[in-house]
Structures are given as structure tokens and as C-alpha cells.
């Protein structure tokens, strides 16, 4: 194992009715900017609950609505302006990963004199941020308990991940009943995204990590068992809470304890893909990830083979490593397809005409992949396999 620091300051309130805990977290009489998306929270009643709590705390309430899925820099800039003009003390994100990511960028941008995009590209350091909390409505990204955010600059078609210890949420409310209204396709994308985060952690090269490897395998086996149950019965509180806990744990730092952090190449390619085509993140991952596995196993099938046996329960009897690994990659693709996830770029009417641009955008920051470092031809190979 490598040396590691485990640090996560987000207070997580998990379970039904936990929104009441906001009373302990937000100072009475604060100026609060509520950030949300296209209106799902108004239809499912979460807005009323969150704003009702703020009113009971005598908050001075401001709002920024309309945060896009794949949130855009222009919306971040709007939020920064409100914070600066109104002297906002606290931000409350109510929504999925996009709303939370946008809020993180607003929180940092509000404490910076230049354009928020500087913080996202890393051309200026994040030195401080306004405090913020989250009320999660979609189980997928893990943004509710990490310090990562992904923002799209639609003018340049760049989608960039960035992070800073200053943008951990101070608290997050995770009430699984808030996810009952998540549409079927978004529920599938959430399962795919959470599993992809676990898988990317799994592909590390640090020796002697049996505890964390076993933990990741257990998380993945649970997703394989409960994903289909949830799709069969989307109003089940038990299945929703299981997936919610999986998605938060898959990307809150726990899974990188003692390892080199894993290989996030598929996320890099997906961010480039959805920067060009604005497709859902989980949909892009469902297409790309099995093809990344197939690309990787050509050189080194060992880890994919372990995934095949320990997660998908494929019988190793009489099979070589490569065959087992190929069966593992196929099992992952079939599993996601069985839930209703897309499997090829054609499912989004995407052909190879923008591959040059997607490859270039994948390398917008240097170094793609650690378990297997990818060059541009490798990324092109993964895209070709995805057609
Ligand atoms: O905008 P509203 O009306 O709220 O509707 C949203 C949106 O249309 C809807 N939704 C959310 N909760 C709902 C609901 N509809 C009904 N009932 C509910 N309870 O779902 C749609 C998608 O929401 P979005 O927030 O975009 O989804 P997700 O949570 O998957 O976030 C995706 C974004 O997060 C980034 C992705 O790249 C993408 O931009 N990521 C962020 C990460 C992080 N911060 O750690 C890591 C991830 O790997 C990912 O890259
Ligand atoms: Zn993701």
C-alpha cells in the first residue's frame, strides 16, 4: 500500500427526513443562494421542503435556477455575480451532480476577483470559497461528498474537471425518497456512473491492497445485484437507498485509500465526448468503458480477469486469462445494456466525423491513464470500438 491521508470534512445526513438537520447547519438569518436545475425539485416537492427549512431559519433567500445537465460556465458566472452583488453568506445546492458542481464553481468564483474559468483551468489557484451545503436528488456522481466539479465552457466546447479542498460541501442531505421521481434513463445513468467510479479506482497498480480491492468488488457486486431490482421496482425505498449509498461511496475518497488512485482515462474521454455532443455523462460511460476494458486487456488481461471472476462470477475453469478478461468486458457491457443503457455511439447518432476533436480535447490536460497510459492512437482505438 501507499501512504495516504484520509480526509473528508463533509457531514453526511443519510436517510428519510434528514432535511430537518439543516437547522443545525445553517446559521439563522443568513443570506442563502439556493441553486437548482430545470424544475424537477418543484414538481417533486423537494424545493418546498428545502425552502421551507430556510424560511424557518429566517434566511434571506436568493435563487439561481436553470442549471443545465453538464453545467455551463455562463451559469456559474451568473451565480458568482449574484453572490458578489448581494453579499451571499451560504449556498444551498438542491439537485444532482450538475447543480452541485455548478455550486462548487460559484462558491469558489465568488471569492475570486477574476473570471471563474481561471479556477477551472487551473490558471489561478483556488484559495478560498463560500461555504455550501447540498440536498441530493439523484444518485450518481458522488459530488455530494467530494471536492470535484466538472464545468463546460460551451463557447470553446471544453468540459473540464477541477477540484480543491475548499469545495467540499460542509454538509449533504441524502434522503433516498427524493430520488423516487428520477426518470428511468437517469436512474440507469446513475448506476453506470457509480460503477464506473468504482471500476476506475479498481484499475490501479499498487501492490498489496487486498482490503480496498475486496471493498470495491463488494460494492460492484452489490450494484450488479441491486441495479436490476431497482429498475424493476423504482419506487422501492430499500433499492433507492442502496444505490444512493453506493454512488456516494464510489467517489468520496474511500476507494483510493492506499492506492495510486486508479485510472480515470474513460472519464477523460467521456468528458471530451460530452463536451462535443452534450450527451448524458452516464450514457457516454456505458458506451466507452467496456471498450476501454477491451483495449487494456490486449496488453494486460490480469485485472479485467479478476473483475470477471470476482464481480461477475464467471467460472475460470479451463479458461486462459485473455478469454476470461474478454468475457468480463462482455459481461459488463451486457449488464449495463440489460438495464437499458446505450452500447454504441450510434445510439446517440454519433459517427466518426468529430473523432479528431474528441481526441484533442481528451488531451487538453496532459497524461491520460495510469494503469495504461493512453496515447492519441489508443484513444482513437477506443472510440472506433465504440462506433
Ligand atoms: O435539472 P432538473 O430539473 O433538476 O433535472 C435533472 C436533470 O435533467 C434530473 N433530475 C435530478 N434529480 C431528479 C431529476 N429528475 C427528477 N427527479 C429527481 N429527483 O436529472 C437530470 C440530470 O441531472 P444531472 O445533475 O445532470 O445528473 P448527474 O447527477 O448525473 O450529474 C452529471 C454531471 O456531473 C458530472 C458529469 O460530467 C455531468 O456534468 N460529474 C461530476 C462528478 C463530480 N463532481 O464528482 C464526477 C462525475 O464523474 C461526473 O463527471
Ligand atoms: Zn462519472
UniProtKB/TrEMBL annotation:
| UniProt keyword terms in alphabetical order | Oxidoreductase
Q: Domain of life, per the record?
A: Bacteria
Pinpoint the Fe-containing alcohol dehydrogenase-like C-terminal domain residues. Answer: 187-386
Q: Which residues form the Alcohol dehydrogenase iron-type/glycerol dehydrogenase GldA domain?
A: 9-176
Asked whether the UniProt record includes Acyltransferase among its keywords, one would answer no
This chain's protein is named Iron-containing alcohol dehydrogenase
Source species: Halobacillus kuroshimensis
Amino acid at each position: 500500500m501507499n501512504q495516504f491521508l484520509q480526509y473528508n470534512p463533509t457531514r453526511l445526513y443519510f436517510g428519510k427526513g434528514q432535511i430537518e438537520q439543516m437547522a443545525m447547519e445553517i446559521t439563522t438569518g443568513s443570506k442563502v443562494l439556493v441553486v437548482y436545475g430545470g424544475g424537477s425539485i418543484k414538481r417533486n416537492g423537494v424545493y418546498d421542503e428545502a425552502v421551507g427549512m430556510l424560511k424557518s431559519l429566517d434566511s434571506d433567500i436568493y435563487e439561481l435556477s436553470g442549471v443545465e445537465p453538464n453545467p455551463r460556465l455562463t451559469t456559474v458566472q451568473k451565480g458568482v455575480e449574484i453572490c458578489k452583488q448581494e453579499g451571499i453568506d451560504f449556498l444551498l445546492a438542491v439537485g444532482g451532480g450538475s447543480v452541485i458542481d455548478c455550486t462548487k464553481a460559484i462558491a469558489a468564483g465568488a471569492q475570486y476577483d477574476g473570471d471563474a474559468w481561471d479556477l477551472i483551468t487551473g490558471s489561478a489557484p483556488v484559495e478560498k470559497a463560500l461555504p455550501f451545503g447540498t440536498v441530493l436528488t439523484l444518485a450518481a456522481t458522488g459530488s455530494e461528498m467530494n471536492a470535484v466539479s466538472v464545468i463546460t465552457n460551451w463557447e470553446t466546447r471544453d468540459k473540464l474537471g477541477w477540484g480543491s479542498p475548499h469545495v467540499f460541501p460542509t454538509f449533504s442531505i441524502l434522503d433516498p425518497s427524493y430520488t423516487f421521481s428520477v426518470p428511468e434513463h437517469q436512474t440507469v445513468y446513475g448506476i453506470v456512473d457509480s460503477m464506473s467510479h468504482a471500476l476506475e479506482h479498481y484499475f490501479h497498480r499498487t501492490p498489496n491492497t487486498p482490503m480496498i480491492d475486496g471493498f470495491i468488488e463488494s460494492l460492484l457486486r452489490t450494484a450488479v445485484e441491486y441495479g436490476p431490482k431497482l429498475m424493476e421496482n423504482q419506487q422501492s425505498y430499500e433499492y433507492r437507498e442502496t444505490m444512493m449509498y453506493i454512488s456516494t461511496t464510489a467517489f468520496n475518497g474511500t476507494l483510493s485509500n492506499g492506492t495510486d488512485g486508479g485510472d480515470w482515462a474513460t472519464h477523460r474521454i467521456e468528458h471530451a465526448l460530452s463536451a462535443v455532443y452534450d450527451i448524458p455523462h452516464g450514457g457516454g460511460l456505458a458506451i466507452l468503458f467496456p471498450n476501454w476494458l477491451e483495449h487494456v486487456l490486449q496488453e494486460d488481461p490480469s485485472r479485467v480477469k479478476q473483475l470477471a471472476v470476482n464481480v461477475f462470477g464467471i467460472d475460470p475453469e479451463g479458461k486462459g486469462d485473455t478469454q476470461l478478461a474478454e468475457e468480463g468486458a462482455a459481461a459488463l457491457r451486457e449488464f449495463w445494456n440489460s438495464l437499458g443503457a446505450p452500447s454504441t455511439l450510434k445510439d446517440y447518432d454519433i459517427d466518426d466525423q468529430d473523432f479528431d476533436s474528441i481526441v484533442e480535447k481528451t488531451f487538453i490536460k496532459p497524461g491520460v491513464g495510469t494503469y495504461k497510459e493512453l496515447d492519441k492512437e489508443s484513444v482513437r482505438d477506443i472510440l472506433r470500438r465504440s462506433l
